[in-house]
Amino acid sequence: MHMASGFEHGKSNLADGAYEFAVRASQFAITTGEFAISTSDLADNAYEFAFTL
Question: Is the pTM of this model over 0.70?
Answer without folding.
Answer: no
